[in-house]
Amino acid sequence: MPSSTRIRLIAPADAAPIAAHYARDAEAFRRWEPAQPPEFFTPEGQAARIDRLLTGHEAGTIWPGVVLADDRPIGQITVSTILPQPFLRRASLGYWIATTAQNQGHAGRAVSLALAVMTDRLGLHRIEASTHLENLPSQRVLRRNGFTPYGVAHAAILLDGRWQDSLLWERILDGPGTGEGAA
Questions:
Q1: Which class for 179: exposed (0-12), middle (13-18), buried (19 or more C-beta within 10 A)?
Q2: What order of strands is seen across the sheet that includes strand 148-159?
Q3: Nearest 5°: phi and psi at 98?
Q4: Which of 56, 96, 110, 112 is deepest in the core (most CB within 10 A)?
Q5: What's the CA gap between 182 and 164, in Å, rounded?
Q6: Which is nearest to 153 in space by CA: 175, 120, 129?
Q7: % of the chain at pLDDT higher than 90
Q8: Beta carbons within 10 angstroms of residue 99's beta carbon
Q9: With helix as H, strand as E and coil as C, how does 53-107 read?
């Protein structure tokens, strides 16, 4: 795994590099990401999105991270739908890595680092994720980080113009194998 991979809370200054990755990778991500309006791919569109993410972070419903390689943004990792109630303490995990930085271990390292954030900073007990049934690289990342599949959500997401199934993943964060050493 690359030792230069880090994650941190996303910042307004990340808008331009994130927009550049999204614009360049739009076609490659079309299979995995919902369709977006043209302004999504601009620095201004990303600045507005980042502002919304940070507002959610202040409210405690999301931890929006940026993935860095050698201190340059190469993707995002987000802990969303945070339910901090003592009887729930769960959230959902999503991430992406720019095509120029894929297949270098960054996604696996980012997920490992996010597990530590979820445990140490957010006090979560359970994390869930979903992948497209054919997204084998993302499934390998989750499996290597201790996630296990637990079901299929049928017609769960509109991708590339049609409703598609998602493979559902889970990981319990409390106890042995939690956080940084889990990868």
A1: middle
A2: 5-9, 63-69, 72-83, 90-97, 126-132, 162-172, 148-159
A3: -55, 145
A4: 110
A5: 31
A6: 129
A7: 79
A8: 15
A9: HHHHHHHCCCEEEEEEECCEEEEEEEEEEEECCCCCCEEEEEEEECHHHCCCCHH
Distances (CA, A) of 9 to 26, 57, 117: 23, 9, 10
Structure-token match 């497209």, residue found? 132
Percent of the chain with pLDDT over 70: 93
CA–CA–CA angle 99, 182, 74 (5° rounding): 20
44 token code pair: 């201004």
Query: Using CA atoms, how far apart are residues 75 and 108, in angstroms rounded to an integer?
Result: 12
Q: pTM score, two decimals?
A: 0.89
Name the token pair of 162: 């049609």
DSSP state string for 97-145: E-GGGTTSSHHHHHHHHHHHIIIIIT--SEEEEEEETT-HHHHHHHHHT
Beta strands 72-83 and 90-97, pairing class:
antiparallel
Give me the amino acid identity at 117: V
Nearest to 62 by CA among 76, 73, 74: 76
Q: Which two tokens mark 58? A: 């202040």
What value does the mean pLDDT take over residues 47-65? 97
Q: Residue written as tokens 């054919």?
A: 134
Give Cα separations from 63 to 57, 70, 73, 81, 156 (angstroms).
Answer: 6, 22, 16, 9, 23
